[in-house]
Amino acid sequence: MLEPIRIGVLGLGTVGGGVANVLLRNAEEIARRAGRGIEVIQASVRDVHKDRSCDTSQMQLTEQPMQIVNNPDVDIVVELIGGTSRARELVLKAIQNGKHVVTANKALIALHGNEIFDAAQQNGVMVAFEAAVAGGIPIIKAIREGLTGNSIDWLCGIINGTTNFILTEMRDKGRDFADVLAEAQALGYAEADPTFDIEGIDAAHKLTILAAIAFGVPLNFDAVYTEGITKIEGKDVSYAEQFGYRIKHLGFARRSDHGVELRVHPTMVPEGRLLANVDGVMNAVLVHGDAVGPTLYYGAGAGADPTASAVVADLVDVVRSMTADPENRVPHLAFQADSIATQMPMLKIFEVETAYYLRLRAEDKAGVLADISAILGAANISIEAMTQKEPAEGETSVDLILITQAVQEIHLDDALRQIEALPEISNNVVKIRIESLN
């Protein structure tokens, strides 16, 4: 068997320790699959004296990650430090030095992937990033290679475990958002600053990557409409169930004759759909191809071992391909670099067409519903279902719930501005998009 491939790991935290453990635990199996061993010879850490979750006796520790990038004995650099500025600098330097790169950094790929992949192509090296999306689920490989004979029509997914955990707890136990978020932080599902998770930024990074691979378009994070779950109330979760829906925080990408829509937002999904029944911190991605139809990929979206599983799979792929002609390797974004559709339009959210759940707070008196119906009718917005709740004791206003048929968002928003201007409407209308996922 050939000499082992030597890797350097940037960041030996939760995921980095997991990678080291998996490589040691499954060393024989990995060598049989890759054709040679894979060994960690060097790793960068913030504090070389800190106890680690993995055996570091056979690797050199350094507090200077650039030492690894410049180490001539390192064949592959594994970037696990997170962030974008420092990570971008290190990855580009590794590529310049002729080293292959494996990363789990979704923000790095979403924001700087076009630059990184261009540099990698120029230097004849590979950049692998399976772990950047959905943890241990091999969704990148599935779309890029397994479904390569398909034209991908659309994909959507639960790609952030924190928001899925929060919405699951709100539905199953009737808890409010703030209470569940605090528990998610205590359990380690959410960071001390949970903004990236609960505002949808993390999911938008991942959707950017999935869409580029699915449709052959450049990575374009700025084109993703992003909305978090902070405005979802317990009553919306309850009302959704009464209509046969569940609220999930989805990343959604669809290609049409008009362009590509990229959006992350709370979405009502029929309770019988598989995605509606993905609970807790689990992730799932539904991909619809013209030949294969709908395919679902489910599993752990985070954690040391699931993410390490994806990183090690990338390492094996890179090792297998190291001796191949760079022109004959699997393209980073599935499509050949010179065939990326740079001119395909990216649709704005107001151009998107879906059905909607609307919750209004209205005075409980005659004529209000007629006024609302007239405004919607004038905009050619059809009502699929409606219910009016009984007023609480001592109150004169009620919750009015409407489910619309599909309508372009710009037309709905125009109608909602007129409805909110009615003197009988006391609050802004709550709007949640609905996807049937047929």
Give descriptors for this structure:
eleven-stranded mixed β-sheet; Rossmann fold; 14 helices; alpha/beta; Alpha-Beta Plaits; 26% strand; 438 residues; six-stranded parallel β-sheet
Describe the protein in words.
The protein is of the alpha/beta class. The chain folds into 3 domains: 2-136 and 304-339, Rossmann fold (3-Layer(aba) Sandwich); 144-300, Dihydrodipicolinate Reductase, domain 2; 349-434, ACT domain (Alpha-Beta Plaits, 2-Layer Sandwich). Helices cover 35% and strands 26% of the residues. The chain is built from 14 helices and 17 strands. Strands 7, 8, 9, 10, 11, 12, 13, 14, 15, 16 and 17 form an 11-stranded mixed beta sheet that branches. Strands 3-2-1-4-5-6 form a 6-stranded parallel beta sheet, with helices on both faces. A hairpin with a 3-residue loop joins strand 11 (282-289) and strand 12 (293-300). Helix 5 packs parallel to helix 10 (201-215) and helix 13 (368-378) runs antiparallel to helix 14. The chain starts with a strand and ends with a strand.
